[in-house]
Amino acid sequence: MNFIGIIPARFQSTRFPGKPLALLGGKPIIQWVYENAKKALGEVYVATDDERIFQTVQAFGGKAIYTLSTHQSGTDRCAEAAIKLAEQLDFDVVVNIQGDEPFIRQEQIESLKACFDTPETEIATLIKSIADPSEITNINRPKVVINKNEEAMYFSRSPIPFVRDSQPEEWLSKNVFYSHLGMYAYRFEILIELTHLPVGILEKAESLEQLRWLENGYHIKTAQTQFENLGIDTPDDLEQARKFLM
Questions:
Q1: Which of 211, 193, 185, 190 is closest to 104 using CA atoms?
Q2: Fewer CB under 10 Å: which end of the chain, C or N?
Q3: Which CATH architecture has domain 120-180+189-228?
Q4: What is the pLDDT of residues 111-121, one digit of tens each?
């Protein structure tokens, strides 16, 4: 089984323009992501439509590939890059690594890769058990429920499952809750299929792209991680990451 890592990265961001090139510990964020991904993957590429990002990646010795500027999601950008790279490289599975998570761990990527030891796995993603009750009601932290085969049944910004006849502050003692970490891996042919699906009703309601896949009958295998990634969405998040390094 051959794997390739693709890191979608764009310069424009509503909350943090130029985020991939912001410095953290003397290195741009995109370099942190790339170097950590390389610990688990032989081939890693940054997929971007921006020359500044492309040149920065090449300057630190990484690999980058140009993609269109019209993509609506990182999945779409990954797919275009994968199609181009398939002309010169042999791989079965594409790992989509978020470009704003500089502290992604090798163990997390290895957990995703292990999901494909099962031939039936189409898509894999990471989840983490919730220990803080405030996370359950945080709409910015998507939750997921899984079946006995560790496949995702549903993702939601709302608390799922809802624990009847119990107060929210008691829910963690009544049930296990999982948060979703937005790293994916897909079989190459499945990734291409996903990009041709129309936006679904559930995705529109929750603003969660993965619901489109479930709505169309795809199966998403989950792998549990004990590590919390520190994503950078805003300049304030970057300051927190800098403190983390101290």
A1: 185
A2: C
A3: Alpha-Beta Complex (3.90)
A4: 999 999 999 99
